[in-house]
Structure formats: C-alpha cells, structure tokens
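Schema walkthrough. Field components (list of strings):
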Amino acid sequence: MNDTQPKISLKDVRKSFGSKVVLDGVDLEVGRAESLVVIGGSGTGKSVTLKCILGLLRPDAGTIMVDGEDVTRMRGAERERVLNKFGMLFQGAALFDSLLVWENVAFGLIQGQGMRRGAAKEVALEKMAQVGLGAEVGELGPAELSGGMQKRVALARAIATDPEIIFFDEPTTGLDPIMADVINDLIVNSVRSLGATALSITHDIASARKIADRVAMIHGGKIIWTGPVGDLDNSGNPYVDQFIRGSAEGPIQMEVLRP
Amino acid sequence: MMIIDFLARIGRLFIGFLGTAGRLSIFTGVAVSHCFRPPFFPRLLLQQMISIGYYSLPVVGLTTLFTGMALGLQIFEGSSRFNAEGSVAWIVAIGMTRELAPVLGGLMVAGRVGAAMAAEIGTMRVTEQIDALTTLSTNPFKYLIAPRLIAGTTMVPFLVLIGMIIGILGGYLVAVNILGFNSAGYIQNTWDILETVDIVTGIVKAGVFGFLVTLMGCYHGYYSRGGAQGVGAATTNAVVTASILILTANLVITQLFFSN
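Field assembly_structure (string):
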C-alpha cells in the first residue's frame, strides 16, 4: 500500500430508486488523512453516496474502493472487516435509546471489538471528556439530552474505536450557530488527533469552510466541482457560486411552484 | 383498453405479492440462520424472554381464565339440551389444550409483543439506529432479530402451558361453584380424558405462533419507512398479519395432527 493511493475512491457510481435517478455517475476521491466535504442541496444524493460507501445501499453500477479494495460486492465477514475502519456520525445522532449514554459510546468497543464492559467504559468516558461531556452524563439515557449534547455523544461514539475513516452526515443540522461551531471544532480536533480520513456531507457552508481541506459539490447526482477549500469563493463555477451565496437566482432551480 | 388496464392492474398486484413473498422468505431465512450462528447475545435474549414470557403472563392468564369459565357455562347450557351435562369437564379440557389456550394466547401475544416489536424496530429504522448498528460492526439480524425470534419461539409455549392450566381451572371454578358439580369428580373426569397428544398439539401450536408473531413484528418493523406514519402502519400490519397467520397455521397444524 503506498501513500499516493486514495483512501476512498468512487468511479462512476450509479444508483436509482425506481425511475428516480439519484446518483448519475459519481466520481470522487478522498486522500489519506484528508478532510473532504461534499456540499449540495437537499435531495441531490449526498446521503445516498455515504450509504453506498458504507454498504447500507448497494449501487447499481460503478466501483467503490477503500484502501484499494473493491467493497462494492462485499458481504458478511469481509464487509464487517472493512466496516471496522469506519466511524459515522448520523444526522439525527441515531443513539440507541434502550442503552445508557456511556453504553452507546462504548458500543463499538464491546460488540465490534469484544472489549470487556469495564475497560470499554473507561475508554468511553475518556472519549466523552474529549467532546466536553462529564462522566455524570454517561449514566443518563439519550432521551434526556439536548440536541447539541446528543450530537456530541454521537461524535464520541463515532471516534470511540479510533477509526481510520469518519463520516459526518450533516453534523451541524438542527443546532444553533454557536453549538454548530462547537461541534465543528470538535470534529476538526478529533479528526486531527486520530489522523483519520474524514468525509462529511453538509449544506452548511460555514461548517464546510471550517472542517474541509477540500470541497466537492454534488448536483443532479454528479460531482460538478472539486477544489481546495480556499478556492470556494472563486471557483468560477456558477452552481457553486449560487450555493455559497444561498441565492434563489442562478442555474440551480428548486422545484417550487412560482406564484 | 379497459380490459388491458384491468389486466395490468391484476398483474401489478400479483407481481407486488410475489415481491413481498420473496422478501419475506429471504428475511425469514436470514433471520433463522442468524439464530444458530455466533456471536450470540445472551443478555438481550434474557431481556426478550422476560419481556415476552413473564410480562405477558397476566394478559394470557386473564384471557384463558375467563374463556375457560365462559366455555364451562356454555357447554353446560348446550349439553343439558340432550342430557349430557357430564361432558363439561372433558370439553373444557380438550378445548382449552388443543385450541383455545394456544390460539387466544397467540393472539394476545401478537397484540402485546408483536406490536411493541414492530414499533421499536420501526422507530430504530426511521431514526437510522439500525444503520448505526451496522456501522458499529454489529449485524442487526443478530442483535435485534435473532434474540426476539428465539425468545418468542421458546417462551410462548410456556405461556400457553400456563394458560391451559388456568383455563381448565376457570372451567372447574364455574362447574363446582355455579353449576354444582362435585369437585373430585370434575378433576377425575378432566384427568381421565386428557391425553399427551392434547398437550403436545397445543404446545407445538404455541411454538409456531410465537415464531410467527415475533417474525411479523421484526419483519414489519425492519422494513418500515416514512417516519411516524410508517411506524404506525408497520405496527398495524404486524398485528394483523400475525393474527391471520396464527389462525391459518392453527388450521394447518390441526389438520396435520388429525390426518393420521
């Protein structure tokens, strides 16, 4: 394995649901220890891209490589081995509400790696401290926490197993701007301290500017622009310009009936 | 053109039915295979066994108690028309063990346990908790579904066995206290008429019903879509399909036991 090989690469990935084409040939590469943020409007296929890489959805065509291995057709134990490299922060946090907070954070350690509960709890509390949560929070149920705290617990869970790759699905959606910035900082810090590869999807431009090394824009099921985060403001791409301005005028037309 | 439209509609319905049947078969196969392959989750299994077996006891007990009592009264009334009042004891005994305890017990468990499973797993689906399980290297079939299936298939027979006893007790209470039967004679009659096959039929049915209820709860929950409404629909479907399957399977098993 050499250093120039991308950590994740997608080639011509296609996925349709019935007659609705969601991914229309996505090409994307994420380098080792790079933080790539995919931006795009709602319903452009951002989440589907992540789910295809994780194997939660099976693409209709194309190849997805992780560390040079084709994961598209993997099943069972082989897929589990690859999944062990991943951590994921879900949009709605997706905490298990039948378990305590610390059990949520320790879940991957106990179930995935077979660590003993006592040892796993110690690691979990350490990871929770990293995202600014005290040990007393660990004994609560997820339903007792605010949205921002749930996101932090979910982040602690995503980094608990020290994954090589972390996915962030709309990490700041539904949070106030200050809490969003706190989460952004935590993401940057935890990705850096792990030396992990990060792939995030968001429509929050402020968040993208903060956590990205490189930005890709998805529109109509295709990647239409990629570049370093510094080039975001002079991308020369009218779609990207419209998106970062947040303007209703431009090449991207929303499906809204005009009065 | 009308005829073509009509035929197309039938065709679509049929293809939809085949699709569902196929999906359910694959789901069942995968779920059952995971019941026999490690890793196992003993904590979760125990939790499910308690929730299905222990906490359903009051519901099943009450149902069979009242049914046994009502059955005793009805049989007495009916059989007195041709002077066969003595048959109360053995009709209650055979009715409860072969039919009523398993079927009513199964239906009550479908309402209590099947609905709860569909709602819980359905909510986990729509809040991405099932996806989260997968990304944490835990197979949802092993973690969520296998413990429920095993618990359902093993615990419902125990529930039904207790239900049989309570149902027969209900008939006894009515016969001795209201209808004026002799206590020792009633018990003797019940004991004389019951055969092992009566109990075995009921227990086998209960195991099958327990499997069907938990399977339907898990299946509809696992494939629920579209938020609160989807979970609501999954819950309804779990109870309705489980009830229909219980009644159908009841007939099939009864037929199997008596055809030879």
